[in-house]
Amino acid sequence: MSKNDLRYQICVSGAARGDSVEIGQELAAEVAREIVRRGHLVVTGATRGLPYAAAKAAKIEGGRDITSIGFSPAASRLAHVKKYQLPLDAFDTVIFTGFEYTGRNLLLVRSCDAVIMIGGRIGTLNELTIAIEERKPIGVMLGSGGMTDEVEHVLKSAKRARTGIIFSHDPIELVDQVIDLIETKSSKLPDIPNEV
After folding, report:
1. By the 8 A CB rule, do 179 and 7 touch?
2. Cα(25)–Cα(144) distance, rounded to whole angstroms?
3. CA 87, CA 82: separation in Å to the nearest integer?
4. Does residue 1 fall inside a structural domain?
């Protein structure tokens, strides 16, 4: 398999609850549908709200194909449902990290090729800062409220450039541009020959 045969894993990061859930729900769903239409995977924090809306839209768009992966803060399926009271139905597979929310966020972002931020609260901001430190391509869905309204301020306060960060009001354009960033980054990877 060459590097070009792999499906990209694109994280849809957003609030599990709060004002930006209502504002960003359809935007999260549209971003997820666009990711799946392009043959890639939606990866989320396996929670409610915007990540759930994205995973559910990916599942509907992809039919029987595997389209979504959820990263859970819990160590098991039982803890995911009982302790954290999080859903399972929208995800094709769930990785049970056992590292609570902050550890889950690190594994989630590191496992992705890019992060698309929609709305959000402090956990979404945490995923954003991890993505910046890990030099992941980042998409910011403008008009989705929450932490997306603060990204410019965070970058300015941290004295960070907008390099590798796409801002857009259009979900289709945002997904296209994020995939372009991933492909540019992937083009620098060497092909590893198959061994038989």
Report:
1. no
2. 9
3. 10
4. no
DSSP-assigned letter for residue 162: -
pLDDT of 192 above 80: no
Type of residue found at 94: V
> In the structure encoding, which two tokens stand for residue 187, read together?
């083009």
Domain extent at residue 72? 8-186
Count: domains in the chain: 1
Average pLDDT over residues 81-97: 97
Q: Which of 147, 139, 149, 144 is nearest to 115 (CA)?
A: 139
The three-state secondary structure class of 177 is: helix
Indicate the pLDDT class of residue 196, thresholds 50, 70 and 90: low
Q: What is the DSSP code (8-state) at residue 158? A: T
Q: Under DSSP, is residue 31 helix (H, G, I), strand (E, B) or coil?
A: helix
3-state secondary structure of 95: strand
Integer-rounded Cα radius of gyration of the chain: 16
Which of these, 83, 22, 92, lies nearest to 57 by C-alpha position?
Answer: 92
* Ramachandran category for residue 85: left, alpha or beta (phi over 0 → left; psi -120 to 50 → alpha): left
